[in-house]
Amino acid sequence: MTTATVETLWQQYRSVGDPAARTALLDRYLGLVHHAARQIAGRVADCVEVDDLVSAGTLGLIQAMESFDLSRSLAFSTYAMRRIHGSILDELRSRDWVPRSVRAKGRQVAGAVHQLQGKLGRAPEAGEIAMALEIDVDTYWHWREEVDGASLVSLNGSLSHDGAEVTPLEETLYDRAAPLPGQALEHVEQVDQIKAALNDLPPRERTVLALYFYEELNLRQIAEVLHVTESRVSQIRTQALKRLKGRIDRSAVEAGN
Q1: DSSP state of 160
Q2: Class of the 183-256 domain?
């Protein structure tokens, strides 16, 4: 499918709401949804079905299609992935992500501790709790790791200092990705140069680079999304990188003069 055909589909969909154009665009970009769903599913293990994530991501894709501004230089794939990820995460937030088996273990441990405290008049030891649960101590500690790992603390909470000052928990976390002093201006200038160079690339080349570097899709996945061969994607990426490097180098030379 050529870039011109894609642009025509967008025009038909936006101008007259052509349902055939809408279906064709959905089919074209559905690969992004499956990629995002598989990526997130790998992080949440068996807590949710991939098909449920695909359904949520498809909703995000539709919302992205309805709100995308065709006049922007941003590739639709980059814009859509933000909506797709957001929609999938919203779906996860609406669920209880902790497996029922872990919840059951937590209730058993809590019940045993409560009974032993009443019987012993003190906090029970690990061996005593394990005996009450009829499991060995190693298994007890494994249960505890699972149960404790399921406990979440909201970053919207806060810490108080001397009963007066209140600090959001999120502000107490060390940000390993935070730039060092003096790097911010240099980073902004580099980003501006790259953005300007990217905006000068043909739409198809921008899309391939966005999918490869930003969304971390491999060549085969990009080929599936764009409905072209893997070798063609490799050619487009190579050409885009050469063109991008040349324009960045020219910008650097002009800035030095």
Answers
A1: E
A2: mainly alpha
For 1, the 3-state DSSP assignment is: coil
CB atoms within 10 A of CB 12: 17
Which range is least confidently modeled, 56-60, 180-184, 210-214?
A: 180-184
Helix (H, G, I), strand (E, B) or coil at 158: strand
Instruction: For 162-176, give the DSSP string.
Output: TTTEEEEGGGGS--T
Q: What is the DSSP letter of 161?
A: E
Per-residue pLDDT reduced to its tens digit, 48-82: 678 888 888 898 998 888 888 877 767 888 888 88
Please report which helix (H) or strand (E) contains residue 234, including its range: helix 230-256
Q: Which are the contacts of 43, defined by CB distance < 8 A and separation ≥ 6?
A: none
Q: Which of 148, 55, 56, 147 has the alpha carbon at shortest distance from 93?
A: 56
Looking at domain 100-172, which CATH architecture does it have? Up-down Bundle (1.20)
**Alpha carbons within 13 A on the beta-carbon side of 195:** 9
Could you tell me the pTM of the whole model? 0.42
Tokens encoding 26: 């959905």
Of 47, 52, 48, the residue nearest 101 (C-alpha): 47
Phi, psi angle pair for 213, to nearest 5°:
-95, -40
The single residue listed with the structure tokens 């872990």 is 102
Q: Which CATH class is domain 3-93?
A: mainly alpha
